[in-house]
Amino acid sequence: MGIRLAIDTGGTFTDIIAINETDGSMIALKTPSTPKDPSIGLLKSIEKAIEEKRADISDLAMVLHGSTVATNAVLEHKFDGLGLLVTKGFRHMIEIARQSVPDGYGNSYFWVKPPRLVPLHMVREVPGRLLYDGNSVEPINEAETIEAVRELVEDGAKCIAVCLLHSYANSEHEQKIGELIHKHFPDVFVSLSSEVLPEYREYERAMTTLVDVLVKPYCQTYLQHAADKIASQSKETPFLIMQSSGGVVKHSTAAQKPVTMLLSGPAAGILGAIHMAKLAGYDDILTSDVGGTSTDVSIIEDQTPMYTSSSMVESYPVKTPMLDIVTVGSGGGSIAWTDDYGNLKVGPQSAGADPGPICYGKGGVEPTVTDAALVLGRLPSELIGGEIQLDSNAAR
Known about the structure:
Blueprint: E1 3-9, E2 13-20, E3 26-32, H1 38-52, E4 60-67, H2 69-75, E5 82-87, H3 93-96, E6 123-126, E7 129-130, E8 136-138, H4 142-154, E9 159-163, H5 172-184, E10 189-192, H6 193-196, H7 202-233, E11 239-242, E12 248-250, H8 251-256, H9 264-280, E13 285-290, E14 295-301, E15 304-305, E16 307-308, E17 311-313, E18 316-318, E19 322-323, E20 326-328, E21 334-338, E22 344-350, H10 369-375, E23 382-383, E24 388-389, H11 392-395
Parallel strand pairs: 1-4, 4-11, 5-6, 5-9, 9-10
Antiparallel strand pairs: 1-2, 2-3, 7-8, 11-12, 13-14, 14-15, 14-20, 16-19, 17-18, 21-22, 23-24
């Protein structure tokens, strides 16, 4: 008997579908996510599905996995420990950006610039210069580069992005810097723009590389933990990860370039929605995927998804092949708060699964969308078949 599992890990819940490849029977389950280590929730969901199917983990034929772990790290502004190395003279590149204002300059009075992915004091310039055609006119200086990295590490950097001028035409300088970091600072996560996005336009290349290295600790660690556990009990089982583009790759490939799984879970949701639209006879649909931390929306025309190579996650540009999805940092676990002017805001911070909304009774003290929905009578008194009891009195 072969069991195929499809698992979607969100910030609040992990959903799993188990299909018996022999008779086609299917079950759908939901378990709480474990944001501190998503692999724990993922593995618990596998165990629960195997138990429900009265099977053994050795019966696994395939594990397919989608996730918003990477997305949520960006939406919740988990930017601590980021550092950036740039060519001399380009230290303010991220701050200058594209000098554009969303919805036009008429909105400049009200628009608040989003938090920087990396603050200016965590940006270091390094020697070395390439021309537009890739020819080197100034070699890198190993001693100065190592010192720049050392300063970043001493200031708390755990993840470093490297984005040098014209490295898309010649990756030699960035590759050398990457080797130096791995040799002298082996515990530091590194992403090179020449590997992540070998294209011109330094700002977008730097931002995409920063997002890649930002989510690397989250994605590499939990994917490897899950893969090791699956392999220890079912060595031949493929563990495949959904990409933002709608395809799948091996877990090891996804871990090396995690920016490609930024919209992993939402992409799978869109493909599922298209399948259901075909069964129902609809050609044009609007998909809305509301999770615990984010909401993802996409337009489908003629039963075909739209693709893009450039998108925005909140206010941050990311260039990587993906389905055309608009993501906002607002979901069921989003926390309601007031700003300095007394205006009511919702998100992007989320209560997640731990401690979760106040009504979960797990120590949450900040009101969320879920608490409001419960008080308004829009939610039942329990979730996941009674595993989570919701306390409406506490939510009030």
